[in-house]
Every structure is written in structure tokens, then in C-alpha cells.
Amino acid sequence: xxxxxxxxxxxxxxxxxxxxxxxxxxxxxxxxxxSNYDLDFVGTAGPLLHAQGMKSFFPxxxxxxxxxxxxxxxxxxxxxRIQETADRLIAEKIDCLIIVDSPDFTHRVARKVKxxxxxxxxxxxxxxxxxxxxxxxxxxxxxxxxxxxxxxxFEPVAHQKLGGPPCTYVGHPLIERRExxxxxxxxxxxxxxEPPILLVLPGSRRSEITRLMPVFGETIARLKQIxxxxxxxxxxxxxxxxxxxxxxxxxWAVKPRLxxxxxxxxxxxxxxxxxxxxxxxxxxxLAMAHVPMAVGYRVGAIEGQIRHxxxxxxxxxxxxxxxxxxxxxxxxxxxxxDHLTNDLFPLLSDxxxxxxxxxxxxxxxxxxxxxxxxxxxxxxxxxxxxxxK
Length: 389
Prior knowledge:
Strand order of the largest sheet: 3-2-1-4-5-6-7
CATH class of the largest domain: Alpha Beta
Radius of gyration: 22 Å
CATH topology of the largest domain: Rossmann fold
Shape: elongated
CATH superfamily of the largest domain: Glycogen Phosphorylase B
Strand content: 15-25%
Oligomer: single chain
Number of strands: 13
CATH architecture of the largest domain: 3-Layer(aba) Sandwich
Low-confidence stretches: none
Number of helices: 18
Structural class: alpha/beta
Distance between the termini: 26 Å
Mean pLDDT: 90
């Protein structure tokens, strides 16, 4: 007669939709890694983690707040949820805590749990941007984080220099999806067909499209009117902002073709010749798809003041990974139609500026590569080192 299978209980804490998606990929990898164990997962979860069978203490919408002003307005509620999450994880007597991104929420939970349960390992999946601002956070993390699973290849060196906890590059989740947006050889050859496809990506948040749609529209108009460039204009839009984007696009002199959904967006990436994009993860997607781009971004007054404390030479992830500012970027007042037009126009033909970006994107592929498996599998392997000894 065989004995009962050993049991492990993981605490998983996410604070927004992107963390829910990353955590949902990690759970199957953990189940595979701990195939001889019965596993339970408790903490905070969105719909994707729910689909993986995880129990959530409360709806993710209670804590998924973006922007400084909205956070301030909901601060008392957020602080209560931080304490509740920590108390319930402690009561559950978890064997390991995995926090995913959203450091303003998840790290506060981790500190409380580690203080009460100092024997359990705490794994941080997604490093805070200690290399960009508030670098002192890295050293402070050693008191409650056992290992950081990094999505960007330069982050382990950054943590080492700043005195942070052990940190391993496990690979960016986009690596697992690269085939969805990377063109085939045939599609790459068609990119040079006339007219070229130009993508406009003004962001996925209401504040972003409100600030960027007018200046992006003016930029496109100048390309057409002053430089007399011919192109097919496509704007991949997010479903929840459909009406706002449609309204803002009505005033554009050159009307874009709006497409919706991730599948349509990635299909357009495979065929695009160049792009005008808001700063964010989409710029890394474009770089991995080998689509040359110009980048612009505008934030509110409070966020604009914080920008002066950010200590990085670029806000474009591809530039930071490569270590060279190959993608032009215009922030705040510099994000205007004159500058963006000057940045974008050379990318619509076979120029040195275009070739420089494409050459840099080849280097990006090499720098982001991982030895074997995928990021979730590599992350689960590191977790296992701390749980099974």
C-alpha cells in the first residue's frame, strides 16, 4: 500500500492583468515540475489564474489600479487589501510565496508574510525597475526576497551592482509568442511592396490615446502632405476603447483602418514596414517582430515630474537591452508632429536609419535568447530549488 502523495501550498500574489497572464503560464509549469506532489494555489488572482484552478481572496479589480491619482484616491482600500492578503497567506500556512509584478502591492504583502513566516522562500517574478529609479529598493529586497526571476537580460547584473537579491534572467514571455508576430520569409519579402504598411499604436489606456491620438494624427498628415509618402495606414486598437479611438480618428486628415483583437494586431505586425508607437511593451513586440519604429509618449503633470528622477538613457526597452538608442523616442514636449515626422520619414524607405534599427533587432534576438525550454519552465525550475532541498 503506497502512502499519500506529499502536498505543497503556494501563495501567488498578482496585482493586475499582466501579472494574471504571467502567473497563469507559471502554474502549469509548476505542476509539471512538482508532478509527484499535490499542489494548491491561493492568493490574489484574475480570470486566467482562476481558470488554472487557483482560489482568490477577492476580485482582482479591487487592487488593479493604474496611475498616481487613482491610487491616492483608493489608498485606504488598497492598504486594507494588502493587510488582508498577508494575513490570509499567513493563516494558510503556505510553503512558498510567489509575487508577480505590481511591486507597490505585492512587495508590501511579501514583507509582511516574510516577517511572520521567515522560513518560507519568497520568489519575485518580474523585477521592479530598480535600474531606472529608486535603486535603493534592490538592497532592501534582500530582507524579504529570496530570488528574482527577471524578464530582461540586463537585470541580473543590475541587481548584483545594486546589492539586490540573487536574480536570474528566465526570458521574457514574448519569447513564447514570437512566432505569432514574427513574419515568415515570404511575408518579410512582401513588406517592401507598394504601398508599405504603416502601423500606428497610440497605447492601450484611455489617458494614452487621449494625449497621443491628436499628435500621431498630425504626424501622419505631415508625412502624407509634406513628404508625399504613400502608405497603407493601420491602427490596431483595443476593444475597450473602440468608441474613443473611432471618435479621435475622425479628425485625422489621413483615416486609418482600425483593426481589433490580438490576432489581427499580430497579423499586421507580420506585414508592417514601419510603425509609430506609444512607449510601452508594444515597442518590444515591434522590435522582436523586426518592425522599425518611431516612439512618442506624453504623461500627466505629476507623472512628468517623476520622470526627472528616472535614471535611464531611454524609455524604449529594446534600446535598454541592446545598450544603444537605435529607436528614436520623443517624450512630453518633444513628442510633437515635427519631431515624430522627422523620426518616422526615414523609416519608410531603405535608409541608414532603417538598416540600423534592423541590425539592432538582430542583436536583440541574441541577447533575449534563453538556453532551453521557455520562460515559465525556467521560472518553475528555479522555484523548485527553494522548495525542494
